[in-house]
Write a structure and sequence with these properties.
Layout (H helix, E strand, L loop, with lengths): L2 H13 L4 E2 L4 E4 L9 H8 L5 H9 L4 E2 L2 E2 L11 E4 L4 E2 L15 E4 L3 E6 L15 H8 L7 E2 L8 E7 L2 H12 L4 E9 L8 E3 L2 E5 L5 E5 L11 E10 L2 E8 L6 H8 L13 H10 L7 E9 L6 E5 L4 H8 L5
Parallel strand pairs: 10-17
Antiparallel strand pairs: 1-6, 2-5, 3-4, 3-5, 7-8, 8-10, 9-10, 11-16, 11-17, 12-15, 13-14, 15-16, 17-18
């Protein structure tokens, strides 16, 4: 082999980032916040970057021990338990991969149990599906000392407004139970195309979530007789009228994926700026004539019972300045 070729190979070898890094045996102590978790979920929290398949493999092999005894993936850990974690191989960041940037967001409320922020439009709540990082990853980077920080619920990437996170597992469980049991109140503000009928105040239509061939998620209205449709209820009230547009106050009784966007579009009044369920030509014209192209959907209010005190909490976020400016460009009816 030519010397120049050898030098080239050596240079490439020195500049390739290792895809795998090693780890030693670890002994983890289960704290109060982790008590009651399944063993597999407990490990995944502590073994960031380890493939799920490998986590289950070391559990099945008996290499993971709870208080020196074998345990299954379904085992519930208790406060004070000692979990032995064997050496694992953790995927190193790919060459050129940039870690999530550390970022704080405007805080609406924070205490020992929870954190409520005013999420801006254009930021996903978590990474995945082509998004390198979202709110949760950026907050964790900004708060490396935080022992626990998890999303309680989700907002679409282009939706702004109140977003709730838990700082304790007990708070996460209590708040998610409220969301599932409809113990929360949620109000949104949406700007839609056309003149919304005053008489149309309730949309009670089942929704069906599907994936297309490219793995893209879509939601559509289906017949009440559809066996896979999930009942979805949206309450609508006119807040203000403009020439060709209506600003709505929207309250949801169910929290289905893309519920507001699909329900409003199904009535012939898509949300302005909605690239998936809206009117492409209208969005383009609106962006040209009215100072912006963002989707005008804002989580304006969230009510819930505080997981520690039990007191009712109502958090409010004002309509973002960009949305206000867009509405100001619209002529009266």
């Amino acid at each position: 082999m030519l010397p120049s070729k050898l030098r080239q190979i050596k240079h490439l070898a020195q500049n390739v980032e290792p895809r795998i890094i090693g780890a030693a045996v670890r002994h983890l102590r289960v704290d109060e916040e982790s008590a009651g978790q399944r063993l597999d979920n407990f490990l995944m929290r502590h073994l960031k970057g380890v493939p799920k398949s490998h986590v289950y493999r070391v559990i099945r092999s008996g290499e993971v021990r709870v208080n020196k005894g074998r345990a299954s993936a379904e085992t519930r850990v208790a406060a004070g338990d000692e979990v032995r974690v064997p050496p694992v191989r953790v995927a190193a960041p790919a060459a050129g991969e940039v870690p999530a940037p550390a970022r704080e967001f405007p805080i609406l409320l924070e205490d020992d149990a929870l954190l409520a922020i005013d999420k801006p439009a254009g930021v996903a709540v978590h990474g995945g599906s082509g998004v390198s990082s979202g709110v949760i990853e950026q907050l964790r980077q900004a708060r490396p000392q935080a022992r626990f920080l998890e999303l309680v619920h989700r907002l679409d990437k282009e939706t702004s407004g109140v977003l709730l996170l838990a700082k304790k597992r007990s708070a996460l469980t209590a708040l998610q139970d409220q969301f599932r049991g409809r113990g929360t109140s949620k109000r949104y503000v949406a700007l839609v195309a056309g003149a919304w009928p005053d008489a149309l105040k309730v949309i009670d239509q089942p929704l069906l979530k599907t994936l297309d061939a490219a793995g893209e998620r879509h939601v559509r209205v289906v017949s009440p007789a559809h066996e896979d449709g999930r009942r979805s209820i949206t309450l609508v009230k006119v807040a203000r009228r403009y020439a060709g547009y209506t600003l709505l106050d929207v309250t949801i009784r169910t929290g289905r994926t893309h519920q507001i966007r699909v329900h409003l579009a199904s009535q012939g009044h898509p949300i302005v700026g909605d690239a998936k369920y809206g009117d492409f030509a209208l969005n383009k014209a609106f962006a040209r004539d009215h100072l912006g192209a963002r989707m005008v959907l804002h989580a304006a209010e969230l009510g819930f019972d505080h997981p520690t005190s039990g007191e009712r909490v109502v958090l409010r976020s004002p309509l973002p300045e960009a949305c206000r400016r867009m509405c100001e460009t619209l002529p009266p009816p």
